[in-house]
Design a protein that fits this description.
Order of helices and strands: HHEHHEE
Number of helices: 4
Strand order of the largest sheet: 1-2-3
Largest sheet: 3 strands, antiparallel
Number of domains: 1
Helix content: 10-25%
Shape: globular
Length: 94
């Protein structure tokens, strides 16, 4: 059902957020539907390759600190690197 929603959702005005710690486990058919990617620190080379961001950003991903992220969208002319996201204020972030 998720794959179908990812493929067909736009025509129904459905937006999806996909959040995972293991991007290489996401089906290729789903990943092809994802435009904007927010990538936090990933230490595994296969995981980094699977998010399909430009090579100059791939090199930075394993060295990003807590609160740093890369936002990439093929619709933008240049990728953006975010630094210094606010600290997570939920129990999950403790």
């Amino acid at each position: 059902k998720f794959t179908e929603a990812a493929k067909q959702g736009r025509k129904e005005r459905l937006g999806l957020f996909l959040v995972t710690q293991d991007p290489q486990d996401v089906a290729e058919s789903v990943f092809k539907q994802i435009n904007t990617r927010l990538v936090l620190n990933l230490g595994d080379e296969d995981a980094i390759k699977s998010v399909n961001i430009p090579p100059e950003l791939e090199d930075k991903v394993p060295y990003m600190e807590k609160g740093q992220a890369v936002v990439y969208s093929p619709d933008n002319s240049e990728p953006v690197e975010l630094v210094g996201l606010p600290v997570c204020l939920t129990r999950h972030g403790e």
